[in-house]
Design goal:
2 domains, 3-stranded mixed β-sheet, mitochondrion, metal ion binding, membrane, Peptidase_M76_ATP23, 8 helices
Length: 202
């Protein structure tokens, strides 16, 4: 049995990003007070972060259900997604409902900054989706506002999948990552015109 080397009486310090209702203005036990505190600017940036994340947990099933419905619609009817799926299959890959998954994605706190008035503001990192060669595509259900947002996100990640299959990407190489991000971002200017007609370099 491993020896316990912790000092008696030592206490764990609360994370600076943990929610303390008396300081943040967000109390999970008082929903109406939370709305009032937001409307009257009595909830801190950190409190609003926790309020949002807790609401995502409560709505997780609904968000994932909507995400899956929109995803399935895109695979059937979106010209962009159908075009990308066809090109991925030509490279012996396949993306479908089995490896394009809808999940709740918690935001990450990057840090807390103070403005010139001394008020703290939470810097967070959020994303709509991601691609992993081993996993497939993850769509962040709680971050997707509607079907159009999901379609754009799915198409963006499918470009990464195509690049991975076509160019044998080394994801540890930042130059490779930068190139595929540039390609995926360029899709926004092509969509609805050349890409649907097969006139791009894909």
């Amino acid at each position: 049995m491993a020896e316990d080397t912790s000092k008696a009486g030592s206490s764990v310090q609360a994370s600076p990003t943990a929610n303390e209702p008396s300081k943040t203005g967000y109390d999970p036990e008082r929903p109406w007070s939370n709305i009032w505190n937001i409307l009257t600017n009595r909830m801190t940036s950190l409190g609003q972060f926790h309020y949002r994340e807790d609401s995502y947990i409560k709505k997780e099933a609904e968000d994932c259900r909507n995400c899956e419905e929109w995803r399935d619609w895109c695979f059937k009817y979106s010209p962009t997604v159908i075009f990308l799926q066809k090109n991925i299959r030509e490279l012996n890959g396949d993306l479908n409902s089995e490896n394009v998954r809808c999940r709740r994605m918690p935001a990450r706190i990057l840090g807390v900054e103070k403005d010139e008035n001394g008020e703290e503001h939470v810097k967070t990192y959020r994303q709509g989706g991601g691609f992993n060669p081993e996993y497939g595509i993850m769509l962040c259900a709680n971050e997707l506002r509607n079907k159009k947002h999901l379609e754009d996100t799915l198409a963006h990640e499918m470009v990464h999948a195509w690049d991975h299959l076509r160019w044998k990407m080394d994801w540890a190489d930042l130059r490779h990552a930068a190139c595929t991000e540039a390609t995926a971002s360029e899709l926004r200017t092509c969509k609805g015109s050349e890409i649907g007609d097969g006139k791009t370099g894909l």
